[in-house]
Design a protein that fits this description.
Blueprint: E1 9-15, H1 23-34, E2 38-44, H2 50-59, E3 64-67, E4 81-82, H3 84-89, E5 94-98, E6 101-105, H4 107-118, E7 127-131, H5 135-146, E8 151-156, H6 159-173, E9 178-182, E10 194-198, E11 222-227, H7 236-242, E12 247-249, H8 252-267, H9 273-286
Parallel strand pairs: 1-2, 1-3, 4-6, 7-8, 7-10, 8-9, 10-11, 11-12
Antiparallel strand pairs: 3-5, 5-6
Helix pairs in contact: 1-8, 1-9, 4-8, 5-6, 8-9
Bound molecules: 2'-monophosphoadenosine-5'-diphosphate.
2'-monophosphoadenosine-5'-diphosphate binds near residues 132, 161, 199, 201 and 212.
Length: about 290
């Protein structure tokens, strides 16, 4: 049990459900390793209670919060300020205490950004394929456009959703680099190598033997693949990328770094790289991942 004292600041996760979250493990370990007097707990909050929860958290002097499903969008109206990228994405997963309320950030996307930096993948001037057009794809599209990608192609089962998302990113950021296509249309893309970001739930445990695109030809387009799934640690998509001799990464570092970035924002520090690695090892142990 932690040494909880009168000075201990509280942070927590609001969502529903919250029982299986990895965040308490991440943040309580970071607090211990970084010697920060902070404890992290979960708060199950019903959809209609989000405003009351924010007001209550502020009144209780809670330092910061993570926000998960189903509140990532509807929490925004209760904030006093919002980071520009989070605003564009339209989803927030981290609240930082400020004068009079909380400021919202999207550290999910900051987490992916740090994972890509770790892997030596630069989005700038790159040609990018995003598989999927849901919430995660939306955040990733904005990140890639903000990082000045050369081109972004969103491939989705429902073609119209890909087109709508592409238009929205182009319009909001005043660019014309994002395009949406259907699943069968990737043959138009030949001739280049792409950074491919897999954002759908296809391949997630227990359906581990599936990938949204399984055609061998598609994988000739891939320079490097990143799946946001981390369970299983090696998805079918990653295996298909690796079969072409290319590198593939899962989403575990994204999860790690979304936590680290939130912890840094709350405590106004930069976490030591050695401690980041220690938390990563803990997460792998928790998920029984053997590399
Ligand atoms: P998230 O917020 O995690 O991104 P989401 O918003 O529900 O989740 O989006 C899920 C994405 O995965 C969508 O792009 C969805 O495709 P559709 O827009 O055609 O629904 C895609 N997806 C999920 N399950 C799929 C499946 N079995 N086959 C094809 N695409 C799937």
């Amino acid at each position: 049990m932690k040494n909880i004292k009168g000075t201990t600041r509280v942070c927590g996760l609001i969502g529903n459900p919250v029982k299986h979250s990895m965040s308490p493990l991440i943040h309580n370990a970071l607090a211990e390793y970084e010697n920060i007097d902070m404890a992290y707990v979960t708060f199950k909050v019903e959809e209609q209670d989000i405003e009351k929860a924010l007001a209550g958290a502020y009144a209780l002097n809670i330092l910061g919060m993570n926000v998960t499903v189903p509140h990532k969008q509807n929490v925004i109206s209760g904030l006093i300020d919002i980071d520009e990228l989070a605003q564009n994405i339209g989803a927030v997963n981290t609240l930082v205490r400020a004068e009079g309320g909380y400021k919202g950030y999207n550290t999910d996307i900051l987490g992916l950004q740090r994972e890509l930096i770790d892997a030596g993948i630069s989005l700038e001037n790159s040609d990018i394929i995003i598989i999927g057009a849901g919430g995660a794809a939306r955040a990733i599209s904005f990140l890639c456009a903000k990082e000045k990608a050369n081109s972004i192609t969103i491939i989705n089962r429902t073609r119209q959703k890909a087109i709508l998302l592409a238009n929205e990113v182009n319009n909001k950021l005043g660019v014309n680099i994002v395009k949406g296509i259907g699943l069968q249309e990737y043959s138009r893309l030949s001739g280049k190598k792409y950074i491919v970001l897999q954002t759908t739930s296809v391949g997630l445990h227990p359906d581990i033997d599936t990938a949204l695109i399984e055609d061998d030809e598609f994988y000739d387009l891939v320079e490097v693949g990143v799946d946001i799934i981390y369970n299983p640690a090696k998805t079918k998509f990653m295996k298909l990328v690796e079969a072409k001799g290319k590198k593939a990464y899962n989403g575990l570092k994204m999860l790690l770094y979304q936590g680290v970035s939130a912890f840094e924002l709350w405590n106004n520090i930069q976490v030591d790289e050695h401690n980041v690695q220690k938390v990563y090892e803990l997460m792998k142990k928790e998920l029984e991942i053997v590399e």
